[in-house]
Amino acid sequence: MIFSKFFKKDHRHYLKLAAKQLAAERFADARADYEEALQRCPADAHQEREEIVAGIARAADALGELNLREAEHSLNAGDLAKAFDHYTLASELAVDHAIKARALAALDRLEDQDAAAAAAPSAKSSGHGGSCASCADAGSHRAPAEEGGYGDHLSDEERFELMVQPLPCGLASRYLALGPDFQRAYLLIHDGHDDQALFILQEMLLSGDNDIVIYEVALIMYRAQRLHECEEMFKCSLALNPENGASYLALVHLLAENERYAEASETLQRMLATGVLVDQAHLMLGDLYQITGEEALAVEAWSKSLEFPGVAKQAAQRLVPLLSGQGRQDEAKYLTKRYLQGCC
Length: 344
Known about the structure:
This protein has helices at residues 2-6, 11-23, 27-40, 46-76, 80-93, 97-119, 156-164, 171-176, 180-190, 194-206, 211-223, 227-240, 245-257, 261-274, 278-291, 295-305, 309-325, 329-339.
């Protein structure tokens, strides 16, 4: 009937709802709505699908950050088990490799403390379930998850498809098209078996270069702290495909982590020039300018970020204190009222 068709909730309905949830910082709800939008979105609506996938990533990263903060609170309160759970959730939920790396590094420290306690004669034995890191991002050497955990009822194909869905720039479809060997390697990395995965990926590269396979090898190099090789492989991935947003973001993080801010800035400028993840590039460029003390350029970059709904609130959160510190109270109040006073 016409009315039932008219009132049917299509992907645009859930996309708008997810954006409101994200603006209100209801990140779990936003992620669920984005995923619902993705399921309903037509396969040929490429631009909208990319917007939805980017939204899933933003919501997932926000959840990762929230769990990092909760973990720190638990750690300060002396509740190591609860901190472990939050760090594990952060590593599993986040898409951004820097968030994952922070969570996984914290988990490694907690596990080292457990090992030291277990070695002491008076220590009581205790155990945790291992956590997993998405192999699309930099992590560390995690142990396989315990039986009975999330995802045990899924087949390998289903697990793989769920894990790649949040990837940016249309990468999910490319990951899914790489075949069973890549799928096996991807799941091995997710379960903490980098060495086994590396062998498979290197075998794949013998048949020909592929920017995604090289990117995944680069992340293994990162987790092994083979940073020079990691950087060269990110650059190789981008030489093969200058529109691989994941490789761009990973390279920027790697350069920034090593305080090579000028090179990180140049990489972000290339992203802007090629139209890759423009919203993220403006936001990150502002962060770099702030780190290097170039406040006027930071204001300019974040002001451009306000044009993109997905990152506008984050940009406003950065701009308001900066403008207030410069005595630009009217501008700061305007941004607060428009972007930071909840969701309509």
